[in-house]
Every structure is written in structure tokens, then in C-alpha cells.
Amino acid sequence: MAGPENQKFCLQEVLDSFKSCLSPNREVYIEHYVAGWKGLIKLLNSLGSVFGFISKDAASKTQILVSFLNSKNGSEYATVQSMVKFELDNELVDVNKKGIYPESGCRTLLRLHRALRWLELFLDRLRTSKEDDKTSVMCREAYNESLAHHHPFMIRKAAGLAFYSLPGRQGFLEVMNVGSPEQVVAMLGEAVPLISEVYMITEELYQKHNLLDLP
User: Fold this and answer.
1) CA distance 115 to 113
2) Nearest to 108 by CA among 152, 149, 158, 69
3) For position 98, what pLDDT does the model report?
4) Contact, 66 vs 77, CB < 8 A?
5) What is the pLDDT of residue 164?
6) Cα distances (angstroms) measured from residue 212 to each of 47, 58, 120, 205
């Protein structure tokens, strides 16, 4: 049986997950963050094997976070905020680049956080695009503004080539499995601001604790 990451992508599922991501006091629930990412992994997988290097890494990172949620300290990983406090208080993060905790929750989520920015920028470009705009250009521009800053040259080169194989705008809108292009654009108008808010809350938290450059 196919795993959840191999099932068909549905933008509505991602929207629902990110809607549930924030607590009333704007803490980010890791369970819903992971659910949102599982939906985004389906999107990457639906674009073919060219994005396998990103989707496989994201799938691995979500699994690490799930294992923390299911551990004896699971309650400490309920939100991004509680995770950061717990791991910093207990010195479970490689802030000094010693490499003792390569799979800490903070480091793992940081990798997803960086990739989320890329997808947020790309989906926003798709939302505001015109019929003849090229998705390859939109995706490349979004990547160069975000994830490219954290990738070595060979991965940047591979990503640049992969963007050329993306479907056209119409094909991409169909991948969303929402309905008409107008319906897709409307739903992206709901989803992108939610993704952006989750990103910014996480960015500010990591910046406050000097965690944005974890090794």
C-alpha cells in the first residue's frame, strides 16, 4: 500500500493543516505543522522524481519530529515554542557547532522551515501569475530567494535543472486538485498567508534564540 506521501496532493488538506497550526496565543503546534508538510511532500512527489532530493529529505525530517512527539518527552514537543525551550534548557541543541545532536528537534525543524519559505514564495507567485507566466521561472526565483542560500553548489545546479521540467501553469493548477483555476487561486489566497504567518512566527522565535544558523 502506498504511504501517505505517495497519495495524490490536495491543496485543501494543506490549508486545513495550517489553519490548525496556531494556538490562540500564536504557538505553532508541531503535529499540525508536520501534517501540513506531509501534504506539501505530496505536492513535490506529484511533480516527478526531479524533486526527490528535497521531498525525501523533508519526509525524513517530518518522521524525526513525529518520533519526538511519540517519545517519553512528547509533551515537550507539542509546540515549536515548547520544543525550543526544552531543548535549550537541557542543552540538546548544537548551538556551538559541536555536532553532538545532529537530529535535535530544533535543527530538524529548521531544515523544514527553510524549505517552507521556498514553497510559500513559489505558491504566492503561482497565485498572482498570469496565464502565460512560466512556473519554471517562478519556482527558480522563489528558490534563489530562499533555499538556495543553504544549499551547496551541486544541489543548486540540480535544482536549477529540475525547474525546467515543471508543468506549465495550467498543469500546475490541475495538480492542486481543487477545481477551476479561479478556485485554485482563491484557495491559494487563503493558504499562503497562513503558511506565511507560521513561517514568520518560527523565524522570529529562532532569531530570538540565535538558532537560524544551526549546523
Assistant:
1) 5
2) 69
3) 64
4) no
5) 83
6) 29, 18, 18, 9
100 by DSSP, 3-state: which? coil
Average pLDDT over residues 63-77: 97
Instruction: For residue 79, list its beta bridge partners.
Output: 29
Contact 202, 109 (CB under 8 A): yes
Q: 188 and 11 in contact (C-beta within 8 Å)?
A: yes
Per-position b or e across 60-71, b if 16+ CB within 10 A of its CB: ebbebbbebbee
Contact 120, 192 (CB under 8 A): yes
Cell of 138: 517562478
| One-letter identity of residue 98 | K
Query: How many of the other CB atoms lie within 10 Å of CB of 17?
Result: 24
Residue 2 predicted with pLDDT over 50:
no
Distance of alpha carbon 67 from alpha carbon 109, whole angstroms: 13
The answer to whether the CB of 22 falls within 8 A of the CB of 29 is yes
- Please tell me the pTM assigned to this model: 0.91
